[in-house]
Protein 1
Amino acid sequence: MFCRWAGIIALVVVVGGCAGGVRYPVTVSGDQVDVYHGVRVADPYRWLEDDVRESAEVRDWVARQNEVARGYLDGIAERGRIRDRLSEIWDFEKFTNPVARGGRYFYRHNSGLQDQYVVLMQEGLEGEARMIVDPNTWSVDGSVALAGYVVSPDGRYLAMLVQESGSDWRAAQVFDIQRGELLTERLEWLKFTGLSWAGDSSGFYYSRYPAPEQSEQFQATNQNHAVYFHRLGDTQSTDRLVHSDASNPERLHSAIVTDDGRYLVVRTATGSARRHQVVYYDLKSAPDNPIILVPDLTNDYTFVGSTAKELYFRTDLHAPKGRLVAFDATRAPSAREVVGEEHDVLEGASVVGNRLVTVYLKDARSVVRIYQTDGTLAGEVALPGLGSVYGFDGSAESTETFFTYHSFNTPPTVNRLDVSTGTISVFKEPKVLMNPEDYAVRQVFYTSRDGTRVPMFIAHRKDVKPGKNTPTLLYGYGGFNISMTPGYSVTRVAWMDMGGVYAVANLRGGGEYGEAWHQAGSRLNKQNVFDDFIAAAEYLIHNDYTSAPKLAITGGSNGGLLVGAVTNQRPDLFGSALPDVGVMDMLRYHHFTAGRFWVDDYGSSDNADEFAALYAYSPYHNIVRKKYPAVLVTTADTDDRVVPGHSFKYAAALQQAQAGSEPVLIRIESKAGHGSGVPTNKVIDAYADRWAFLVRNLDFEPR
């Protein structure tokens, strides 16, 4: 195919080109240069940072890129069969852990292919469920989602967080369960918040920002987060300001009411790092006077529950792997240690039936232990295998709690646990079109560049014998103290059914081995994350799971950054790369929306030493003309977490620099954000495109 590069026109370069039979749209390249600590850094695609809602030029670029990507992806013969298979195995009932209120159980449910989960309510454990809220009726295209809900203590009201087009902004509304109708009040500009009811069900606490200017709603950084109380029936303008910090407008505040309704616990943070200041309000005797529990933002203090007198927290103070402490709320604040640091990482805990249910990570898999409130070990919850759990919400007054267990080959099953007896029973179990016994799941350990031992999970069908021609997909994240544990996914099952191997590497930067593991992959140590991922790929190749032409890598958000950086550093090691909603410009990320909260993990270009480290691996800034593997960049036009300009600039630069014949495409979803609230049909379409792209570029025929 004929390809043409346009020349320089009035200090503006217009670039276009083609690779592998794909003709890319021309992209205007400007002459923007920034100076960081004496270093001149070019940013030729700065104009692609403009909000797609505000810029006709960016909208046109998005439309032309989507047209090219759509033509390529729709031309892959296997895509239709892949989508049909995804739809087929996606079509099973899905349930979330229930919440008990007054003998009733509330939970979310999806009948199979519904775009959004509905809320069901049933009387007792065996009662017939009935639907009380259906978000599928809120929009024609499924783009309006229920982002969360909380049932009032008396079981009458449902306070809901509503999300539109995947944005981080939320609105709050209240549904009257008894009358079966939506109340008239609607609260706007909520972000990074939960909802927590007052003990008498008169209203709830929430966090929000001041209303932004229209042009700044989806890109500008937000300041002056604050906690408010909304009384049912009132307008938002009369909501009472409860907690704020005008002298530190960049801080985040979250509030939760204890189960007995007596105390309001408020945690303050500066960003993504788990460092908290904690105060509480005695809602009975001194509702306007904050009592300081933790004055400094130096350690993690995650509230996990309460008894009549004590407030329990997970902390890493003097315990990098975590421990549990309790504060006596009736005295001058001082903490007692309840459960000390152990060899495994304390991931979370809750207070149920005056016992402590703790979830630990043992080599990145879940282990559940129950303790008495004096710290005595009461037992361990038997789990079915190598998997993950979440849930265990409850109260000190009830011994009942629910949790979900799942793994690569086991769909999410909701279980009921009685902490007084240790009895486990199934509450809801999905019926799926797969047999867990048909899949092999194993954990291996490999050595990274500096000698660090790193775990990795590997899963595939048992009737697939891995070898150098086996298509393999390697996933990674490596950041923000977030652990990658074994989990069920329809898309992963579909990949394995196609004959592929699926691998998850537990990179430094995550929380798999505690705070030291996290810090070893943060700030000036971020290159360790990329080294760990490269070593994982080399392990898979050297141990004959696959070969470089058959190996693909994928990751989203911070994982998209990972994929972008590693693709630059070792393009020879992969046949394809799928960076999703990635942080690609590491010099300017903190200028947009939530970006400033990530400085704790990444560092900032405002700091000379951190600038040097960021500039050395920033995906956008380290693209040079050479042969890259096939790349499919994915993002969404309404992502206001990692703004799409990151992916736009990265894709434009990579298209211009590709010296090989492999395609570089960008797929831009409309009316979708960073991942949450996306309708089922859009998710299926997105993964049909991803897997079809791999079929063509890893050159294999799906089984």
Protein 2
Amino acid sequence: MILYQNRRPFGTLAAMITRRTAVGALAAAPAARPQGRKPNFLYILADDHAGYVLGAAGNRLARTPNLDQLAREGTHFRNHFCNSPVCTPSRQSFFTGQMPSMAGVTVLRTPLSNDKPTLAKQFKNAGYQTAVMGKMHFNQPSRPGLHGFDHVMCEDVVGREWQKAGPSRAVAESVKVKPQWRPFRDPANIWLNADKLPFGRYDHDMRGSFLARQACQYLEDNKDSQFALWVSFQEPHSPFDFPVEDAGAFDPARFPVPKVGSEDAWQIPLIFKDLKPEEKQGIIAAYYTSARFLDRNIGIVLDKLKSLGLDGNTTVVYMADHGYSLGQHGRFEKHCGYDPALHVPLILRHPGRIRAGHAVTEMTEHIDVPATVCDIMGLDPLPVLHGQSLRPYLEGKAHPSPRTHIFSQYLENEEAFVRTDRWKYIFCTGQRKRTDGYLIADPTPGRYKRLYDRKADPGEFTDVAAENPTVVAEMEDLILERFRRTHPEADKEPGNQPSREDAIAWYVRPRDA
């Protein structure tokens, strides 16, 4: 089934780097771009894939062989962080190159304005055929031309056409499968799949498999075109879908239940309060199974790229929108400033042009990715770029201005976060009753700040703000510097704010149109 049209072929494929030649050149510094033909571009996205659930990150329980291979063939950024720990603001931020506040998308249901500059528009302007398939959180129906894409098959079309195709074979009634997903209406152990039940379809008939086949068909049909293709999978987002064949892939007993600190009780969302240890283990096992399923479908797309001889002249980027907490601090979600929710996988590969087998341990941010893509793909820079190009790392060089900190924001709860190598600072007004489903016992606890010494306390359990007022002041200055440099209303900041905290509180209010 083909759900798009090949509108604008770009002629024959020029000289390609063969797989054998590429493998021989993997460890070399990037070579000059092939003459007469720009590289293709393949952007693979996942939903809620935490940076620590990856074999390449040293996780021996994760089964992600295809992503691990991609990391061996490219550059893996091991300290990469999102700029907002929630789907829509994060995605539209790295799609536009702007922090969420400037992009105009800071809460889940806001659609990105159609007049915003995007990476897809930059590729389109450079003569690329552009396509998107899968979950993008544009919050509007798919249509040709949306945000710069020629071919648009977002989650609305994928869901409709996948359902229309139907299963190729029925699952036996004796096989226990998960119920309909009803988050927040059912208890958390049900909608987070603590029983680690498969979706009621076999592998071939899963939505993720359907999406992978659509991507492969696009590559087949456009192998002679100059393309920029986005493929965005829904896994491993809850309810952690995986097919019947993968049931029982992980033993829940192998997953230790993450520690909950003495300072965590007041801030654990009520919906997670009653989860039992064995249920938490089941949720973690379901998540790891879904990540395994995701990895398999990514491998299908990458194998198709290779079989068509396109891998030698295609820049591949893999990342997720944000991280995910799997029981850390008693939470099973993103929506917070702890490292598991902010830490995201990022891998870039292009044989002969991007250093292979390289792990970058310096901190990087999502907004650095669009700056990097424009740089390495030879595109005009986006008109607003809040990040910096990571190209030196891809060439095996030291970066002239490595990040000293990362900055993230979650304006649904009026929060801002700063992380350095040593410190993590969390600021929250505590005045907005959140509407994301993760209410705590006191939904409006008032303003609070937390400082964690990650050197002594990497799990971020013990607040040391009171003992370190100078560090707190430095962290707040970093937050204000970022907001003042990237917020669309920075010129309207009241000049009579009585404190840094009051100034930050003014910035963290959501202002989406």
Protein 3
Amino acid sequence: MTTRTLYRNARIFTADGPDLAEALVVDGERLAHVGSEAAALEVLSGSDFAEVDLGGAFVMPGFVDAHTHLVMMGETMQKVALRDAGTLAEIQLRLKEAVAADPGAPRILGSGWLFSAIPGGTPTAEMIDAVVPDRPVYLDANDLHSVWVNKAALAEMGIDKDTPNPLGGIIERDPETGEATGLLHETAMHQYAWPTLASLTSDAERDAQLATAFEHYLSTGVTSTIDMALGEDELAAMLRALEAGGGTLPLRINAHWLVAPSEDHEKNLAQVARAAALSRSVNTPWLRVVGIKIIADGVIDGCTAAMKEPYSDGSNADLIWAPEYLNPVVAAADAEGLQVAIHAIGDLASEVALDAFEHANAVNGPRDRRHRIEHMETVTPESIERLARLGIVASMQPVHADPAVQENWRAMLGDERVERAYPWTEFTDAGAVLALGSDAPTAPHPPLPNMYIATTRKSALEPSLPANLPKYALDLASALSHATRDAAFSCRREHELGLLAPGMLADFVVLDTDPFAAGVDSLLSSSVVLTVVGGDVKFRK
């Protein structure tokens, strides 16, 4: 049976240097040749092979989404979409339409609302109850660090005036009555909303959510992902998909186990031990548990990110993980050979994360660790230099810098800190590895618009808006490499993923437009015509 395929007549960006190749040879699941057509025919001489004429199309490595949440992404696609609802009235209208479309729905779920759409930036249960008072409503904020609910949802979760704030979380309350107002931040969402909804979700529904995420990723050119909030339910869905696929998946998953904050050292270390055990038992070419995920602070939009200086209203946020609990967890995970990914959006949180990594280095000795800090939307120059020196990967998401979602973000800081927002090129100038992803579903998952934002600092949602600090824009080749080669490096798979070269896995995508020839604006209109994973065509337009 023919296992070799020649893909010819193409413009191939390899992510391994500036020159474009014109042909590649797939042999089984790997690449046997990337280069000229003449050399490809020499490689194939004397053997049977199939031939695909790409008609001059643009080929590149499959995107490796360096930060995503797969099952949650599929789930969000089934919710009422609110990201482009610019006013409270529009949000309320969409909730009414959702009820009209499914009058028997036991609850209404929505996602993507922006603080800037809410009067005073303060959503309340009454605002939802004005249109949907008869069933629970749960609305995820755009950043997925807050959930806005109505009174029926508060009752369903068992939250009342006596419900305590969990460690690292806030239940917003009326200052006079103490009653919950309908907004849960950070671990309050994790410990009340998420378990409630999880208990109402079947395995079949999770399987469908994961399948939806696979489908959408393949159609947009993503062939590998790094999942950043793996729990028991998500892992079970992935294992079922792996079994159903006969030991394969539609795309590759590298996952970080989510470690919940606690002031009990033994409980914290038990979570690390669970991740370490999974890293040994779940270790296939298609699904791997590679590390742990720690959420050290919140987000700027909700004023829950931990900052060195207060927000514009004079408030500030505590760290979710105090150093006395964070450092032992990082050191224990490091000792097990796990990669540690720390969510740190505020400049104080990134300093504390770097302190924890230095602590692990001191305790466990030097080696190639490949730890990561996620997001770093505000960060000091000193922290960038220290991150590069320590060899920590900067995992960042251009979609979060889209000018269309920046109004409230900038207002919450309100000072010179907004002039150093999302400083991608400062990281690369310092010599750090920059891995780009989407953080779906907190932001749109398609990588081509993400690359447009990376190269222009303009909006993929509203392209007419002014660029957001264009001094930090990346050139096209660098942006594509950060989203392929460097993203693969960030999960220790650079030896087989992220670039097109002989011996690498045959994971690549074919676009209908060459962005180098047509210009970066074409990234907004380009589409994927073919996605190949492990030599197999997984999507064809």
